[in-house]
Amino acid sequence: MAASFQRIQVGARDVVLAETPAKARGFVDQSRQLDELMLKAEESYATSLFDDQGKKNFEALKVAFDEYWRQAERVNQLAVQNKDAEAMAVLVGDGKAATVAMQTAMDALTQHMIESGKEISDANTVTANGAVTMMVTLIVIGVVVALGLGIFLSRMISKPIGQVVHMLGEMAQGHLGLRLKLDRKDEIGVMAQAMDGFADDLQVFVVDKFSL
Q1: Which domains, and CATH codes, for the chain?
Q2: Average pLDDT over residues 184-189
């Protein structure tokens, strides 16, 4: 949009400096084509505005451009009529004031878009950082839970195995009265019951042998 406006400004100057009315009319036609491009750019730009301030700035831009184009048409008509002095007077008078107002409106809209973009970027950064923090927290919690579960399962297995080893050691020394007495429904519980049964049978066998 800024590029189209700059080309319109150059076209207005060229209209005044044209050597003949015919050349002036050629520049006028070019300016009007650029005006159509400017209006299309405005329509496209309007779709990117989401907040009230942006829409307000855009309306101010449209008003400024309408005034600028009104002055540009005055210049065009005077130049085509070969009234170059009057056209130049409008160009450096009311036309210049309209140009300054248009540029100010474009600068305000551009600055607002930059600030809005920065706010959106900052908000996205905060959201992304929050997501990363949550992800890291969940990973740490997962690791802690996994370690705790691993330790718990390890102790569930290693403790009864240690008791079995201890019982076998006692039996090897002739102490047959020790029993595991594990009330478990898993494989370790089955093994403990088998060990207790074996110890019972062995103790009965030994007692019977000594009683003969």
Answers
A1: 2-130 (1.20.120), 139-211 (no CATH)
A2: 83
